[in-house]
Amino acid sequence: MTTASTTASTTASTSATTATAHPAATVSTATAPPGAGTAATATAGTGHSTGTATASAVPRIRLDRVGKSYPGRPSGRRGARTPTVALQDVELDVAAGEFTVVVGPSGCGKSTLLDLLGGLERPSSGRVLLDGEPVTGPGPERSTVFQQYALLPWRTARANVEFGLEAAGVPRRERAARAREFLQLVGLRAFEDRYPHELSGGMRQRVAIARSLACDPEVLLMDEPFAALDAQTRETLQDELLGIWQRTGKTVVFITHSIDEAVLLGQRVAVLTSRPGRVKEVVDIELDARGEPGDPRSSARFAAHRRQVWELLHDEIDRARTLEREAVAA
Amino acid sequence: MTTALGPDTRPAPPGAPGPGPAPPPVADRPRESTLPRRLAAAARAALTRTAALALLLALWETAPRLGLADRVFLPPFSEVATAWWELLRDGRLWDDVRASLFRSLTGFSLAVVVTVPLGLLIGRYRPVAAFLGPLLEVFRNTAALALLPVFVLLLGIGETSKVTIVLYACVWPVLLNTIGAVRTVDPTLLKLGRSMNLPPVRLFQRVILPACLPAVFTGVRLAGASAILVLIAAEMVGAKAGLGFLINNSQLNFAIPQMYAAILTVSALGVGFNQALVAVERRVTRRTV
Q: Family per UniProt (chain B) (predicted)?
C-alpha cells in the first residue's frame, strides 16, 4: 500500500469516528451495532465447525457508514443533475467464516454493495474495511460469483477454472491439478472438457463457483448467483453451497432477492431498505437442521424466520413501489 | 447434457440371451439404417449444391449453340474452357494471377495487421473514438474507386497505387467490425476481469481479444471479398498485368473466350480466398456455437 493511500485512510477513519459519534439517528436506522457482529461470530463458532473460531474484535468485513451515489443523468425537461443515492449509511459487520445474506427490494443497491466489497467501486462516503484495512481495489482475498456466470465461452470448464488461477499467478502445472480438484468439489470432474454452451445453467454456475474457490479467497462474494436457475437446480445448488461453505469455512456475502434463499442460507440476514439502501435490520437465523438430512425449508423455525424477514421486506417493497409510481407521475 | 449423461448413467445390461435379441437391434438399427441414409443424404446434398451451377453451365453451353444468344459475345462454355486451358498452358494466366494475388494479398494483409489493433483501440478507448470517429466516417463513405485517380497521381501507376487501393478498401470492414466487437464484449466478462485484478494488457489478451475474434473474422472475410473486387476494377483502369488487365485487354482485342476465362478465374480466386479464410477462422475460433 502506498503512503498516500494510508494517510488518506487515516484521515477517513478519523472523520468516520467523529461521524459515528454524533447523530443518534444512525443507531435506529443501522441496527447492527458492534455487539451484533460478535454475537453472530459466537454462533458461527459454536454451531458450525468452520475452524475460524479465532475471530478477533476486528470483523473480516466492516461496512462503516457506507454511502454510494452516482452522478445522475440530466433528466429530460428540467435538465437538472440529481445524483442517484444507491446506498446511505450502511452499517454491517461480517465475522470471519460467517455466511451473511443481504436481501432487499429490487433497485435498493444490493449489487452496488457487492461491487463496493469487491473493490470495483469506491464508496462516496464511509469506509469498507477488510480485516480492518480499507478496501482500495479488487484483491485475491475476495472472489465474486456473478449471476450471469461470466464464463469465457471459448474455454472449457477446466480452462475456465484455470483462468482465475492464471490471474493469481499460479504456475501452469499446478493450475490443471487445482482446477480438477475444484471441479471435483462441485461434482463436475466428468465435464472438465466441456465448453460452457454444452453445460446446463446449474453446471455453468458450479463451474463459476469452482473458479472462485480455486483461488482460495477468504471472502466469497455472491451476486444473486442462483437467480437465473430453475427452482430444482437452485435448491440443489443451495444445498451444495452450504456443504462447500461448511467444508471450506469461507466467509460468504450472498446477495439475493429471495426470502426463502436468504433464510435457508444465511446465518444472518441483513434486510436492506428501498432506495437509498440502508440496513433495516439484521436477523439472526437459527436453523438446527442445517446441513443435516431432511428439508430445512419445511421446519417451523424456517417458517417463523421467513415470516420475520418477509414482514421486514414487504414494507420496503411497498415503499419502493410508491416511490416508483411517484417518479413516473412526476 | 442430459443426452450426454444418458449413456453414462445407464450402462447396457450385459447380454441376457432370452430377451437379449431385442436390445441389439435397437442399438444396431440406427447404425445400419444411418449409413445408407447418410450416404443418400450426402449425395442429395451434393446434388442440390451443384445443381444450380450445372444448370447455369448447361444453359451457357446450349444458349449460344441454339442461337438464343449471340455466339460472338457469349461463346459456349466449352470454348471458354478451351481458351482457359490455353491461357494456362502458355503461362499467361499464371502471370496475371500472380500479379493480382500479390497485390490483393499484400493490401489485404497490411490492412488486417494495421486495422485490428487500431479497431481494438478505438473500440476500447472513448477519447480515441471521439477523436478519430468523424475522420473515419468521412473516409468510410468515400468509395475506394473514387480515390483511384488520387492514388495514381500520388503513387504512380505501378504496384504501390494498386496495393494502396486494396489496403484502403480492406480497412473499413475490418475496422468497423472490430470496433463493434470490442464495444459489445459481454460486460460481465469485463467485470470478471476487473474483479480478478487483471492488468489491462492481460484483459485484452485473455478476455477482449478472444471475445472479439468471431466478429473480427466476419470483417476479415468481407475485406477478403472487397480486396479482389477493388483490385480487378483498379487493374482494368490502368495496369500492365493482372486479371483485371487480362479481362479488359481481351475485350479490347476481341478475344471474347479469353475474357470469359479470366472472369471465371476471378470468381474461382474469390471463392478460394473466402474458403481459406473460413478455414483459418475455424482454426482460430474453436468455439462451436
A: Belongs to the binding-protein-dependent transport system permease family.
